Each structure stands twice: as C-alpha cells, then as structure tokens.
Amino acid sequence: MKKIYLLFSMSTLLFIVSCKKDAVLEPDKPTTPEVSTTPYVPDNSFKIVSYFPSYRDPEGVNISKYKMLTHLFYAFLNPNPDGSLATLEQPARFNLVMQRAKANGVKTGISVSGTKSIFVTMASAATSRNLFVKNVLAFAKTNNLDGVDMDWEYPSTSDGSADNYVLLMKELSDSLHKYHKFLSAAITPGVYAGSIRDGLKNEVFPAVDFFNIMVYDGVGWDKNDPVQHASYDMATYSMNYWLNTRGMPKEKAVLGIPAYGKNAANSSKAYRDFVAINANTALDSASIAGVKYYFNGTTTTKKKAKLAKDVGNGIMFWEFYHDDNGTKSIIKAANDTLGRSYN
Fold first, then answer.
1. Torsion sign (Cα): 206, 208, 209, 214
2. What is the DSSP letter of 132?
3. Among 209, 193, 224, 244, which residue's Cα sits nearest to residue 314?
4. What's the mean pLDDT in 235-248?
C-alpha cells in the first residue's frame, strides 16, 4: 500500500513539474534580441544639423522650425573622469525638445561635452572608457535617441590624448552601431596648424558617421576681414583642409555655420538680436548700442550652404535658439538655397 501510494505521489509530482516546465518553454510572446541582427548602414543623405542647449527655453523656438532640420542634438551630457555621467541638466526641456523633434521627423541625439581634462582622464584607461561607452549607450537606448554627438574640445598630440580619442571613438562607434545608432563628432575647423589640428587622426574617420566642423570663432584669421569670426574664405579653407589635405570622406563633412555674431572684443550676440533691431541681415555686420558685430547674414549663409552641397554633405548651426523665427531666419535661407521643403 505504501509502495502504491509512493508511486502515485511520484507520478503526480512528475506531472506537475512537466506542466511547469512546458509553461516556461512556451511563453505567450516570443522575445526579440536587443542587438540588431542586420548590418549597420550609415545615412549618407545631406544633413542640416543644430544644437539645443539646456539653458534655452524651448518656447523661444517656433515648432514649425523643427522641419528645417534633419538632426537635432540636446547639449550637453557631461562625463566624469571615471566614465560615469553627470545628471542631465533640465531633463524636462530635454524631453520636450526631443519630443518636438521626433514629431517633426527630425533625428534626435545627445551631445556629450565637458572639461577637456575630464575627457583626457576618462579616455586614458580602458576601464573608464568602457564604463563611459556603456553609460552613453544606455542613455541613448533609454531615451530612444537616434545617435550621439561627441564634443571633446579637443584631443591633442601634446598631451597624448589623440590616440586615446581614436580608441574611445572606435569603441563608442562599435557599441552604437550594434543598435543602429549613429555617432557624430564636433571638431576643430583645422585652420590653425598645431597639436589640436593634428589631434584628430585619420584613423578616426571610419568610426564616425559625420563630422560637425566648427568653422567659427576665428576672429583675426581672415586678413582681408579680420573682425569677421566666420568668413566665407575661412569656410572654403577649412573644407579644403579636411577633405583634400586630410582625406576626410565627402559624405562625412558637415560645414558649421554660426547663428551669432562677434565684435572686436570677442563678445557675442545672437543672430535674432540683429533681426530684432531691424538690421539689414543680407549683410554680415550690424551695430547694437554703438558696438559693431560681425555675423553670417542670409547672403553668406546661402553661399555656405551651396559650398557644403558642392563639396561636402551637410551644414550645422550653433545654435537653434540663436536663429530668428521669422522670414529672416538663416536656417530658412539655407533650406531655400538647397531647395528643401520644410512645410
């Protein structure tokens, strides 16, 4: 009797275990792997890029203007020396700006920036590099971003960071591309020879999807127009250096255009400030309170947009809020020159 009871109990137990096992093996919904099984294909279409700093009020930009961009980066996410990330500034603004960009078909991203010394320390060790890459990827995935922009100003041959920059960008690129997210980089205009220009090595070209070339803040560079901080000649020189002298692929070169002006003392005013005083924005200079500022008006912006289309693959504006919301917008002028629809 005990044997029969024992056998019955064992049979019952096996039946229950079998049922539980079947329930685990046959889930209600199949799981999908996070990492894409298809190869990463870069987007080589012409780009119109801008940045939205955390200290700007999103309500100061007309929502209709988002359609004038292809890519928008929120600025900035700051790293720590150990590879961890600082708390994002103005997260509510970040969410609103990214939501508005996505609703208007704009690709979204986070721009990573910070003190040069922090980047130098973080990139110098494999442990901190790996943690940084892991954290940036997690941020991009959590917030459903299309990509990441690296704004390290600047890796240099004088402090040994140039080689570590290459390692960092390759590791970040590999991780982002596995999830079909792009990697861009803000870089020096390359008009000044030296350790900073040489700090961006050619080995990084294959890892990065596109480079936002910051062709501005060059007061005194153009001897024919010494107070203009972003002359057309500076733009042609910069593009020639990166594309022809250094061999950057054309599809990766994005020409930076300032949406602000500077005076002889290197102080700045937003482009919208010149529109507000009813300045002739077809020109490249205007006076505010008796001080003359030099900027890129609609005429020069159109010339630069054509230059970028002819020799490169995009334009970039620092920054989105600086531009005017009306008919004198330089981002609008660029779109019109490129024949791009934004309605």
1. negative
2. H
3. 209
4. 98
**How many residues does the structure list for the chain?**
343
Q: Residue 145: name the closest of 88, 215, 213 by CA.
A: 88
Strands lying side by side in the sheet with 285-288: 268-270, 260-262, 291-294, 285-288
Distance (Å, whole) CA 27 – CA 37? 22
Helix (H, G, I), strand (E, B) or coil at 51: strand
Q: Domains of the chain, with CATH numbers?
A: 42-261+297-338 (3.20.20.80)
Nearest one of 89, 86, 44, 50 to 67, comparing CA atoms? 50
φ, ψ (nearest 5 deg) of residue 173: -60, -45
Asked if pLDDT for residue 281 goes beyond 70, the answer is yes
Residues 6+ apart with CB under 8 A from 226: 219, 220
The answer, yes or no, to whether residue 162 has pLDDT greater than 70, is yes
> Could you tell me which residues come within 8 angstroms of residue 133 by beta carbon, excluding any fewer than 6 positions away?
83, 168, 171, 172, 175
- CB count in 10 Å sphere of residue 245: 9
Please, which pLDDT band fits residue 99 given cuts at 50, 70 and 90? very high
Q: What is the mean pLDDT of residues 291-303?
A: 98
Residue 153 vs residues 134, 213, 268, 302: alpha-carbon distances, Å: 22, 12, 19, 28
